[in-house]
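Support request, please re-run this one:
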Amino acid sequence: EREREALRASFAVASGDGDEESDEEEEETVSANIREVLSEELGVDRCHEILAALYVARSDVAAMVRQMSFSVWKTVVANTPRTVRECLPQIMDIVLVGLASDAYERRTTAARTLGDLVHKLGEAVMSRVVPILEGALRGDTIVADGGGSIRHGVFIGLSEILNATGKAYMDAYADAMIPLVRRGLCDADEMVREAAAAAFNGLQQTVGPRVIDSVVPPLLNALTQNSGELDGIDPEHALEALRELMAVRANVVFPVLIPTLTAVPITLFNARALSSLIQVSGATLSRRLPQILLALFESLPVHHASGDTEAEAGLRDTVRVIVSTAAQDEGTLESLMLQFHESVKVKEGADLSAAPKEASRVAEACYGLATMCQSFAPNSAARGRTAMGAHVIDWLRILIDLLASSSQLVVEASWAALDALCKIIPKDDYDGYVGPISRAVLHATELLPKEQKTLPGFNLPKGVGPLLPIYSQGLLTGSSDTKERAVRGMARLVRFTEPTALRLFATGITGPLIRIVGDRHPPNVKAAILSTLGLLLTQVPALMRPFLPQLQRTFVRGLSEADDTVRRRAAAALAALIPLQPRLDPLVAELTTGIKQTEEQGMKNAMMKAVVAVVCAPNAQSLSAASIQAI
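Re-run finished. Output below.
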């Protein structure tokens, strides 16, 4: 009750009737009297709390509150700088709570108050504000309205001070502020770390590089000493601090971090740190990408040789993160492509099985390319319409060449990349890649040693799987030239693949060939189809048995074609089929009837060759007497 009476009396004097003018001395006397009354009745501390609240109200978001507060303040306080210095601890208590509040009005009012303090009073309050902020950091008070901790408010306040203070003041107090920022960056509370990072950004812009030199090295030291805390900084907290710094000043912080984190061999902890930091690196990743990837590629064989599978897996995860992040930006994508190209370069004919480090580098680049392709959406390699589309042909050639490598590691990695690459090519573009793929396969197979009859990459469990859909689509929808290339390409796949590896694809190859061979096509296309079907019968006879009835009709029909090349290919294919046919009598009947009925000598000759093949077949003894008589 005494407190309310004292306040009522003071504010009554302060408001007055507004009609009488007083000179400055009278105002100071009145103000001093009011202060004396408040101090006597309420006590000095309570008086300071009221004046602090009144000072903060001068920056309220509501205009009416600001006007009334100014009016009362002017009446109650004669010397603002002196009064503010006396009440500064209480003002800062209110400000810090307000800055950490969830309420917009409280945050705005607190920020305005702090800015007003520093802007108007400058060095007069700076020397006292910084120690107050430092003391508040030691507390763990939570704002009652659901906001963050007081520590959160400290760094929001620090940012406000930096925005309102000139460079001269900052140079004088930077040494006191830098430790506060470093401590806040390692705080366990995410909101505190974010606010500290914003303060770091403002401090770096004002003071310059010495902030980086004072903040980043201790964090980096704590990060690399991952077995425990260093100078009171937990490694995990140090990593989170660096993430926050990267989010606000990646272009300044990243170059400082890279030399330490990419020292070969990269440790598992450093790899995880890189993975975490790169996700917030933004455009700065592009310039550092080659250095990072090369260090990772060089470190992987070291861990592999030492048997550290956990570190090896961790480094590969980091490569995946880097590649997936870089692939989202077209500018970085070009740098990534250049690095992959450099990493897969090998001398023609080089024996990678005898160079494990080089083989590891090539393989990891291939796996990286596979990861990049997997991070893209379907159809993202459309020719002429996407950034990735321009690189597809080059990579098809490179990867197919690597399928012939002497290193099993490289073969498996290049196949994984080829599979991922083919999956992002739009189906509508398939026929455009039939030619490049055929040339690449031809080049790869021609480089094989004479004693090697198959391409190692085609002998993997799903070896020809990535290329087969492209050939099939070209066969069904392409031009005549494309169809011929597709058929010849399929034939080359069959010729350079182990029969056991073709088991999964026998139907996928044979079906489309049988389906289109009866359509109207130029003789060269039909001849290529018949030749490929004959090759399949020779290479994987057991897998072709379900198709024998259809194939026999197809080949016999081919003997009646007008083109001599087509007839010869049909006869050769039929000769390959005959040993597999359990009953030859129907075939003999069809051939002998055709010979009797046709008048064209070329057709007669083709059918006679087929009859000769029947007679010479190992199963010719199954022929009936009627068939022998007909022949």
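The longest helix spans residues 235-261. The chain is about 70% helix and 0% strand.
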